[in-house]
Amino acid sequence: MDIATSKLQSTWDARGIAFAVTVIALAAIPWFTGSVFHFHIAIMICLGAMAAAGLGTIAWVGQLSLAHGAFVGIGAYSCVLMVMRLGVPFVVGLPLAALVTGAIAYVIGTPLLRLRGVYFVLITFALNELFRLVMLEFPSVSGGSSGIAGIPKISLFGLVLREQQSVYVFTLAMLALVMALLWSIRRGPLGRRFAAVEENLELAEASGIPTARTQNTAFVIGSAIAGFTGAIMAHYIGFISPESFGFQLSVSYVIILVTGGRLALAGPLVGAIFLTPLPEFLRSAQEYQHIIYGVVLIVVLRFLPEGLAGLPERFAGKGRERS
Prior knowledge:
By secondary structure, the protein is mainly alpha-helical. It has one domain (2-246). It contains 16 helices and 4 strands. It has helices at residues 2-10, 12-33, 36-59, 68-85, 90-112, 118-137, 139-142, 164-187, 189-199, 201-206, 211-237, 247-260, 267-275, 277-281, 289-303, 311-322, and strands spanning 148-149, 155-156, 159-160, 239-240. The strands form 2 sheets. Strands 1-4 form a two-stranded antiparallel sheet. Strand 2 and strand 3 (159-160) form a beta hairpin. Helix 2 packs antiparallel against helix 3, helix 3 (36-59) packs across helix 12 (247-260) and helix 4 (68-85) runs antiparallel to helix 5.
């Protein structure tokens, strides 16, 4: 456990600097251009980074979930239905959507996390497809294949965020909130348990760490963040359908996480900055998007196993060797 903890702590200086620089750059670029399109891209980067950060929390205990898109969908539908059918304000529906998603994740995760490795991956893939199919079968709830349109814009205590700039500020603030939460968790006792479980599950169990409960805690936190992201996404885009939260969405979050860096706090944001704009800039070559994603993933796994966020640490290490 000491080895895992020291490994975790040793990455913070270089990656912390990289994270700060990345956040500042993300925040500044759209304001310099003033383009509505660039604000939209920045908003989608924030949403992608938030969802991938939740997935990273699950990966932090050695599990890879392919049901993340479903949990984003649960949060989206929960918030939209509360706002549109129950008249709940968005500022209340947003945290409630995260709580609902977390509660469902707890119920599912308790038996699910007894599986490990490829078995867990396969069952989460099946869960993602099950969510999509179930929602299609209940059009009175989900809108069926037609989805739900006309979703109200994000509203904060009566102030409707109609402009892209204001939505961007809000999503950036929510991303900062999520990152601050994860930073505090990973630096605390719970984070040390996460690191120990990821490093060596059997050793952590022998050391007295409740590994099943620790993994389920990570699963609940990561899924709640996914639901939180889905609620914001639904009210920003204004439309959701069961097809919006299919397997492809889950895979995109995995690619963002792996590209940015699975064990780095800055990893989801770096991966989102690198990958989120690609679909927008490759609209004329949509048939090649998946090929490009695949090539990026192969290159990162082969040459950058710690992701793009691990580059500062690698360069810092080479600098120390030369000195």
